[in-house]
Amino acid sequence: MPICRVHPLPYHADPRVRFARVRAAPGACLLDGGQPAAERGRYDLFSAWPERHLQAQAGEDGRQYLARCRAALAELGRAEAPDDCELPFTGGLLGYLGYDFGRRLERLPQHAAADLALPDADFGVYAWALVSDHQRQTSQLVFHPSLAEQRRQELIELFTGANPAAAPGPFRLQHPFRPDLSAAQYRQAIEKIQAYIRAGDCYQVNFAQRFQAPWQGDPWRAYLALRDACPTPFAGYLRLDQGALLSLSPERFIRVSRGQVETRPIKGTRPRGQNSEQDRALAEELLDSRKDRAENLMIVDLLRNDLGRSCRTGSVRVPELFALESYPNVHHLVSAVTGELAPGLDTFDLLAGSFPGGSITGAPKIRAMQIIDELEPTRRSIYCGSLLYIDSRGEMDSSICIRTLLMQDGQASCWGGGGIVMDSEWQAEYQESLTKVKVLLETLETSLD
C-alpha cells in the first residue's frame, strides 16, 4: 500500500501564522481546532491549490454527487500514514456541504428564497496538507504519493523560508448587522411551530433567523478577530472566489476513524454569567432543565436512527448524555452517539443517510425540514451545513456550521436559532437566537468605530 510522505516542522499550537502564507491561494481551506484556547480539538489541518474541484451541479441528485466524490477519491488513490505517525488526513477531500444539499437527498418544498449564490456543495481534491497534532505536539507537511517531487520541495520551501506572510488587509462593516425578522415575525413563526406540534406533525423544530450587513476589505482579518473572541474546536476558514466562509462552530457533526463513528449533538444553551457565581448558576440551571434534557434526548434518538442506517446492527451506543461544555459566550448541553460502519458501507453512505445533522433540523427530521422551509423566509445556505475532510482512507471529521458567517459579494450573513418544543417561550427563544451570535456580531461591529 502506498505511504504518504511527511516533512516535520516546528510545532505551532495556533495554525493561523502558517495558514496566512496560503490563505489567499485558490481553494485555501483551514480546519481549525481553536488551540491553545479551545482544548477539545486535537488536530488542525489546512491546504490550498486543489488538484480539482467538485461542485454540485444543477439537477444533480445528492447520492450521485457523493458517488462522484467517492470516484475522485479512488482516482487519487489510498495512501497510508507512516508506521510511526498518526495522521487524520493523508490527502483527499476538503470543503463543505451546505444545508440545502439536503434538498438533493430528500424531497422538500421550495418556499424559502434562494438569495445567496453559494453552491450546495463544493470539495477540492488535495494532495498535501499541513497537519498539527496538539496531543503529540507535532506539526508536519503531509504529501500524498501522487504529488510531484518538485511540488513537495516548493511547499517545504514555502513553510520553512524566511519570507513572512503578507499582513492582512483592512476590514470593516458598512453598517451594523440587521435581522431579517422582527420580534413579532419571530413570535408568529414560533406559534406556528407549536401549532404543528399540537397537531402531531412534529416534536421539535429548529428555527433560525438571519442577520446581514455589508462589508468591505479582507475577510481573513475578520476571522482573526472572531477567532480571538470565540475560539472553538470546530472552527474553519474557506476562501471563496468572492469572499470566504468563517466558522466558529463548537459542534462536531460526524467523525469516522478506523470504521468507528461518532456524532456529538448540541441541544440546550445558556449565556455565560457576568461573574463566577452567576456563571455557575446558569450552568447548573442548564444541567437541571427538564426541557433542555428532553430536547437533547429527542435529537439523540433521531441520530441513533440516522447512524443506524449505515452502522452495524447493534453497534450504536450513547456513551455520553447531557454533558456540559462551556464556551466564551454560552454553556451547551452535549451528548455523544457512536457506532461502527457496517460491512460494505463507507463514509459517503453515512453522509447520505445522516445529512443534514438532526441537531439543527428537529424531529422527525423530514417534517421538521419542511416546516423550516415554510417558515424561514430564505434558504440557509452554509448555515447548519458542514465543513469537513474525507481522506484517502475514508477517515472523516466534520462540523455543524453554526456560529458561521458567509462573507460573499460584499454581504455578510450570519444565523442564530434554536430548537422549539411545545413548552418553548417565544421571548426566551428569541433571546437565545441573539445570545448565540452576539459575540460574533459585536466583534465585527467594532470595525464600525
Automatic annotation (TrEMBL):
Domain Anthranilate synthase component I N-terminal: 19-138
Keywords carried by this UniProt record: Aminotransferase, Transferase
TM region(s), chain numbering: none
GO molecular function list: 4-amino-4-deoxychorismate synthase activity
Pfam families reported for this sequence: Anth_synt_I_N, Chorismate_bind
Domain Chorismate-utilising enzyme C-terminal: 183-436
Keyword match S-adenosyl-L-methionine: no
EC assignment: 2.6.1.85
Keyword Repressor: no
InterPro entries per the UniProt record, alphabetical: ADC_synth_comp_1, Anth_synth_I-like, Anth_synth_I_N, Chorismate_C
Domain of life: Bacteria
Name of the featured protein: Aminodeoxychorismate synthase component I
Species this chain originates from: Geopseudomonas aromaticivorans
GN (gene name): pabB
